Amino acid sequence: MTGTGTRTKTWKAEISIVESGSEVRAEARLRGEDGGQIVGEGTARCNPADENVPAIGDELSVARALSDLSHQLLNRAAHDIEVHTARPVERLHA
């Protein structure tokens, strides 16, 4: 995070949504330039008493997948800080 020059990096995110009956599952993949990736998952289910509106299930499952991805990325960053500083890190929050 320090340095004198400016450098632009590109990470790619891909979200897949699979609908099966009243359940929607989303998978959010984040790929860095180094080839590594993190995958977040999210699920939404329609309550049988509610009207089935697929767009809402998509939104909920994707939001949950992105939240999962975010938490994994924060945990990875905290771990990397601990490795590089040899000191424990108070867990980071989204």
Automatic annotation (TrEMBL):
Transmembrane segments: none
Region (Disordered): 31-50
Organism: Streptomyces albospinus
Protein name stated in the entry: DUF1876 domain-containing protein
